[in-house]
Design goal:
374 residues; single chain; 4 strands; 17 helices; mainly alpha
Length: 374
């Protein structure tokens, strides 16, 4: 914390609450030109104005005293649609910044280890090799399903928050997942809104690749067709459905019912499995089109396929806060670091957290793959 309110935190607050500068000036009872001068640093932010902003926008005073972290100016990576709006993105990023500050604080307070990730250069930047290295780091064999993608990341030292913004829980809009690769020691993956379990797992794996491979990113990825985005999707497929598994189960003649059986074992959508087969040359372009037509004709829309995959729940952030501050941590942590209470309670509901809680299963069905290997 600094010894005076920071002008750039007013800008952060404006983005976090999704208001225009004109609206903020009206809310705070000042002129637009005065607010502009304060935000630019040409006029100091008074304690009175800071108090007013704290009250109007429901944030603790400490929110405005936070010292900015240089990493927070670096680009974030998204899994998003091409139609995503800049204003929505600005609010999502600022909410993510608050989540990242919280994860930095709690992971360092509890001495949780920094991220342990493979060096992509040591694997010639090959997505298949990097995925295999991640599996080895997690103690997984090439044929073993990833039972919980969230816990895999947490064990590697990466925080995960699911349903980042309470205002977007039921309508995430055009953004699904994001991360900031430049934050290499205490990285955080966030998922925007509520999604099916298979989408969540894929989004987390997608952002994991950005954290591993795109730490040198200097400008945002403005196109969903960017090669880094394509590589992140390829990595997600390689991590969740390793090549030996794909070659064993995916083929030109596999039916949709066959794909559902693979989905049940590996927690990956049929659409993603088809693309995985296509990438490895196991499924032709013609067969891909045919399968998609079949899916459309029987009403398998995106995130509405049969065989539901369980939605995973992060544990690391909540357990760390619970250990450091007890079960009623929200008010204390909000006072200490300035994170709004409603965000804290949304990300980590105050409740008894069992440090020994077992890792959740991937799917609602029984684990066929485990039975076959025993």
């Amino acid at each position: 914390m600094t010894d005076a309110p920071q002008a750039d935190r007013l800008t952060a607050l404006q983005k976090l609450r999704g208001v225009t500068q004109t609206q903020m000036a009206a809310d705070l009872g000042v002129s637009g030109s005065y607010l502009s001068q304060v935000k630019s640093g040409s006029r100091p932010i008074s304690t009175e104005l800071a108090h007013r902003a704290s009250t109007v926008y429901r944030v603790p005073m400490s929110f405005l005293w936070v010292q900015s972290n240089p990493v927070d100016a670096m680009p974030v990576t998204f899994w998003k649609k091409a139609s995503a709006r800049a204003r929505d993105e600005s609010q999502v990023v600022e909410t993510y910044n608050e989540a990242l500050r919280l994860f930095r604080y709690t992971s360092t307070t509890t001495d949780y280890h920094a991220a342990r990730l493979p060096d992509p250069a040591a694997h010639d930047h090959d997505v298949e090799a990097i995925a295999a290295a991640v599996r080895r780091s997690a103690g997984l064999r090439p044929h073993t399903p990833i039972k919980n993608m969230t816990r895999l990341c947490e064990k590697l030292g990466i925080g995960v928050i699911i349903d980042l913004d309470p205002a977007r829980s039921d309508d995430p809009g055009d953004h699904t997942g994001l991360s900031r690769p430049a934050e290499s020691e205490r990285p955080l993956i966030a998922i925007v809104g509520k999604h099916t379990g298979d989408t969540l797992r894929w989004a987390i794996a997608h952002e994991l690749f950005h954290i591993i491979a795109d730490g040198d990113l200097k400008t945002p990825l403005n196109s969903t067709r960017d090669q880094r985005e394509k590589r992140a999707h390829a990595f997600a497929g390689a991590l969740l459905v390793p090549e030996p598994i794909a070659r064993q189960h995916l083929s030109e003649t596999l039916t949709l019912q066959g794909y559902l059986r693979v989905k049940a074992d590996y927690g990956v959508s049929v659409r993603a499995l088809i693309l995985r087969g296509q990438r490895l040359g196991l499924v032709s372009d013609h067969r891909v089109r045919s399968l998609y037509i079949q899916m459309s004709s029987i009403g398998w829309k995106k995130e509405q396929e049969p065989v539901p995959v369980a939605v995973e729940r992060p544990l690391l952030l909540g357990q760390s806060l619970h250990r450091a501050h007890g079960p009623q941590f929200a008010a204390r942590v909000s006072y200490l670091i300035g994170t709004p209470v409603e965000l804290l309670q949304h990300w980590v509901p105050e409740q008894e957290l069992d440090d020994d809680e077992p890792v959740a299963g991937v799917v609602h069905l029984s684990d066929r793959a485990a039975r076959r290997q025993t």
